[in-house]
Amino acid sequence: MSSDRKLSFETQVTHTGRAGKRVHGFVNPPVHRGSTVLYPTMAERRGGFSHRLEQKLTYGLSGNPTHYALEDVIAEIEGGTRCQIVSSGLAAVTTPLLAYLKAGDHCLVPDSAYGPTRTFCDTMLKRLGITTTYYRPEIDEAGIAALIQPNTTVVYTESPGSHTFEVQDIPALARAAHARGAKVLMDNTWGIHFFQPFKHGVDASLQALTKYVVGHSDVLLGSITTATAEDWERVRNTALALGQYASSDDCWLALRGVRTMAVRLEHQMQAGIEVAKWFAGRPEVDKVLHPALPGAPGHALWKRDFTGACSLFGVAFKPRYKAEATHAMVEALELFGIGASWGGYESLALPTTGFVTRTASPPIAEGPVVRFHIGLESTADLIADLERGLEVLRRHGG
Ligand SMILES: Cc1ncc(COP(=O)(O)O)c(C=O)c1O
Question: What is the DSSP string of 235-282?
Answer without folding.
Answer: HHHHHHHTT----HHHHHHHHHHHHTHHHHHHHHHHHHHHHHHHHHT-
